[in-house]
Design brief:
Number of helices: 8
Largest sheet: 5 strands, mixed
CATH topology: Purple Acid Phosphatase, chain A, domain 2
Oligomer: single chain
Structural class: alpha/beta
GO molecular function: phosphatase activity
Keywords: Plasmid
Number of domains: 1
InterPro entries: Ap4A_hydrolase (IPR050126), Calcineurin-like_PHP_lpxH (IPR024654), Metallo-depent_PP-like (IPR029052), Pesterase_MJ0912 (IPR011152)
Helix content: 25-40%
Domain Calcineurin-like phosphoesterase: 3-188
Family: Belongs to the metallophosphoesterase superfamily. YfcE family.
Strand content: 15-25%
CATH architecture: 4-Layer Sandwich
Radius of gyration: 17 Å
Mean pLDDT: 96
Length: 243
């Protein structure tokens, strides 16, 4: 069976990214797909973009890529800070990323995206309604078929669910997990690009990494909203919630 590692939401956290890539290498998985939010929040946006471009076969656009490279009127302090360090060439790359990609695996049409195949800003939590989840499978305007499997990131919380004979899979976050403090990514297994029905599996992987090293990098770079960022790394609790 073919194995594909699916990563998302690195957010410039290099120690977390390196730990996840090492785990993927140890499992002898050579194909990696990335679901966006390479940059933003953490201090290593430039390094993350460079690594992802080198390591990942497919990369789709996240909401932070949109904020930084396309939303010119966005003057949020964090956006301006990351836009300022990335440089023109990286910003053009982020702007060029597609909203989604799709492929067959063991006879199933798999569509991967950051938040939704139709809208990079449409957030669908694990607790979302039936209607919200059903919409994830609908074909975007430039595609013809509803998907059998939807794989996404964005919410920083991994889960999988069977849904009307279909499958939803969220791979969580590499660099800013908001369930607990381990980096998260997904593995899908099956026959890649095969139209023939066959075995298909998904799994969630949790990887420990050096959180205090990531904190040190953030302090050294004097990133915006430093206190909130550090608290999220150390506790896995979103800055908009109280522990």
């Amino acid at each position: 069976m073919d194995k594909i590692a699916v990563i998302s939401d690195i957010h410039g956290n290099i120690p977390a990214l390196e730990a996840v890539l090492k785990d993927i290498e140890d499992r002898k998985i050579s194909r990696i797909f990335c679901l966006g939010d390479l940059a933003g929040k953490g201090p290593g946006s430039c390094e993350t973009v460079d690594i992802i471009r080198k390591k990942c076969e497919i990369v789709v656009k996240g909401n932070w890529e949109y904020f930084i490279s396309e939303q010119e009127d966005n003057e949020f302090e964090e956006v301006l800070w990351h836009r300022g360090i990335l440089g023109k060439e990286r910003l053009e790359y982020l702007k060029s990323l597609p909203l989604y990609q799709e492929f067959y695996m063991s006879g199933k049409l798999v569509r991967i995206c950051h938040a939704s195949p139709k809208d990079v800003l449409k957030r669908v939590h694990a607790s979302a309604s039936y209607v919200e989840k059903a919409e994830l499978f609908e074909a975007p305007e430039d595609s013809e078929l509803d998907s059998d499997v939807i794989i996404y990131g964005d919410i920083h919380g991994a889960y999988s669910q069977c849904f009307d004979q279909k499958m939803i899979f969220n791979v969580g976050s590499v660099g800013n997990p908001l369930e607990f403090t381990l980096a998260s990514y997904g593995i899908i297994e099956g026959s890649y690009k095969s139209l023939e029905e066959g075995a298909f599996s998904i799994s969630i992987v949790r990887v420990p990494y050096d959180i205090e090293l990531a904190v040190q990098y953030a302090i050294e770079k004097k990133i915006p909203d430093l206190e909130h960022y550090i608290n999220e790394l150390r506790t896995g609790v979103y800055r908009g919630k109280k522990k």
